[in-house]
């Protein structure tokens, strides 16, 4: 009985050992590899670059005063539309005390002179009427009186000009009245009533009272990298995507490429400018950020494949084409235009050819 038990135990141990070896051998076997494939398609390939920038008015003017003083009135607000000559603001002059004192003294002297000239004229006129003096002599005193009157008027105008910046004969023409020099929309009014302003002259840009722009003519200002600028030329079409109006696309035409680059963050950038075709009844605000797609080259309805399946070696390009079930051969191809995702096939492939793209592990056997 014991002998039989030993035999059975030995058989069981042998069976377990054999099964373990078989399992380990099965686990050590390499799993079969299944290759996925793709085919060429007929599509459009567009090679483009992107320029970042913003949309701004073509004509934007800063209105500055021609005289220093304090803003006493403002007649416009941002968003209003103005015409050439419309009043923007009024400036109250703070006169220079030395100039004011000299002007007041000049007027006083002129008044003394005219009083003396009038008395002399009246006296000589009486003598002329009594035929004591000749008419020619009287004319000399008459000229002196007229000259004195002119001096008084000039002194009064000078005093008023220093005090108020305008003479009584100037009418609506005055440096204290700031008017628009262009027709357009008021974009900003960076001053308030009571603010001091400085006149624009050779040594000072002056204080900006308002910024006005023609919102009907907009341009795109952007920058492109030096690696792309050599592919651009005036007249190229741009497609603008405006950040605040992302549902719309705007056409633009490249009209200027800067001849000089600017270094930004270690890279050389070139500024470009393009005229924007605005859509009817759509208001585009100044300063909207925008991206411009610039079409460098395009191909319509060409045979193309994913560029990721193409392998490059020296000066040649090749793919692996299926010749039988999971059997592939290397085939040299000739490529054309690429957009970074797809590449044009000029020679070496047909639309029905199956091309290996990647390896996928086969599912474990049950």
What's this entry about, in short?
By secondary structure, the protein is α+β, with helices and mostly antiparallel strands. It has helices spanning 2-28, 97-129, 135-164, 226-229; strands spanning 33-38, 41-57, 60-63, 69-74, 81-82, 87-92, 177-179, 184-188, 196-197, 210-213, 218-225, 237-242, 249-257, 262-264, 267-276, 288-306, 311-313, 316-324, 327-338, 342-347, 355-361. Residues 360-366 have low confidence and may be disordered.
Tags for this entry?
single chain, 366 residues, alpha+beta, conserved putative lor/sdh protein from methanococcus maripaludis s2 fold, Elongation Factor Tu (Ef-tu), domain 3, OB fold (Dihydrolipoamide Acetyltransferase, E2P), six-stranded antiparallel barrel, four-stranded antiparallel sheet, 4 helices, 40% strand, disordered C terminus
How would you characterize the overall build of this protein?
With 366 residues, the protein is of the alpha+beta class. It has four domains: 75 residues, conserved putative lor/sdh protein from methanococcus maripaludis s2 fold; 92 residues, Efflux pump adaptor protein, beta barrel domain (Elongation Factor Tu (Ef-tu), domain 3, Beta Barrel), CATH 2.40.30.170; 77 residues, OB fold (Dihydrolipoamide Acetyltransferase, E2P), CATH 2.40.50; 68 residues, Helix Hairpins, CATH 1.10.287.470. The protein contains four helices and 21 strands. Strands 2-11-15-13-12-16 form a six-stranded antiparallel barrel.
Topology:
Elements: H1 2-28, E1 33-38, E2 41-57, E3 60-63, E4 69-74, E5 81-82, E6 87-92, H2 97-129, H3 135-164, E7 177-179, E8 184-188, E9 196-197, E10 210-213, E11 218-225, H4 226-229, E12 237-242, E13 249-257, E14 262-264, E15 267-276, E16 288-306, E17 311-313, E18 316-324, E19 327-338, E20 342-347, E21 355-361
Antiparallel strand pairs: 1-21, 2-11, 2-16, 3-10, 4-6, 4-9, 5-8, 6-7, 8-10, 11-15, 12-13, 12-16, 13-15, 14-15, 16-20, 17-18, 18-19, 19-20
Helix pairs in contact: 2-3
């Amino acid at each position: 009985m014991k002998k039989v038990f030993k035999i059975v135990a030995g058989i069981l141990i042998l069976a377990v050992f054999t099964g373990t070896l078989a399992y380990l051998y099965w686990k050590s076997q390499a799993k079969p590899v299944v290759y996925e494939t793709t085919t060429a398609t007929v599509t459009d390939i567009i090679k483009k670059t992107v320029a970042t920038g913003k949309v701004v008015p073509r004509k934007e003017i800063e209105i500055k005063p021609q005289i220093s003083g304090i803003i006493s009135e403002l007649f416009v607000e941002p968003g209003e539309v103005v015409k050439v000559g419309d009043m923007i603001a009024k400036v109250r002059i703070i006169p220079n005390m030395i100039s004011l004192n000299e002007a007041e003294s000049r007027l006083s002297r002129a008044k003394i002179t005219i009083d003396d000239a009038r008395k002399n004229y009246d006296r000589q006129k009486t003598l002329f009427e009594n035929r004591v003096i000749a008419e020619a002599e009287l004319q000399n005193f008459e000229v002196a009186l007229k000259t004195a009157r002119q001096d008084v008027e000039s002194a009064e105008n000078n005093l008023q000009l220093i005090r108020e910046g305008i003479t009584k004969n100037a009418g609506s023409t005055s440096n204290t009245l700031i008017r628009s020099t262009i027709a357009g929309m008021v974009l900003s009014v960076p001053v308030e009533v009571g603010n001091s302003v400085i006149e624009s002259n050779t040594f000072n840009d002056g204080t900006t009272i308002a910024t006005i722009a023609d919102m009907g003519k907009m341009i795109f200002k952007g920058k492109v990298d030096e690696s792309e600028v050599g592919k651009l030329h005036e007249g190229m079409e741009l497609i603008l995507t405006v950040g605040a109006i992302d549902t719309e696309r705007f056409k633009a035409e490249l009209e200027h490429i800067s001849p000089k680059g600017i270094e930004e963050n270690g890279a050389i950038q070139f500024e470009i400018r393009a005229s924007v075709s605005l859509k009817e009844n759509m208001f585009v605000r100044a300063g909207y950020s925008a991206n411009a797609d610039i079409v460098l080259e395009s191909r319509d309805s060409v045979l193309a494949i994913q560029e990721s399946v193409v392998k490059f070696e020296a000066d040649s390009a090749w793919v692996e084409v299926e010749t039988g079930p999971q059997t592939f051969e290397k085939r040299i191809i000739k490529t054309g235009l690429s957009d970074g995702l797809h590449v044009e096939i000029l020679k070496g492939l047909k639309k029905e050819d199956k091309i290996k793209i990647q390896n996928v592990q086969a599912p474990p056997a049950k």
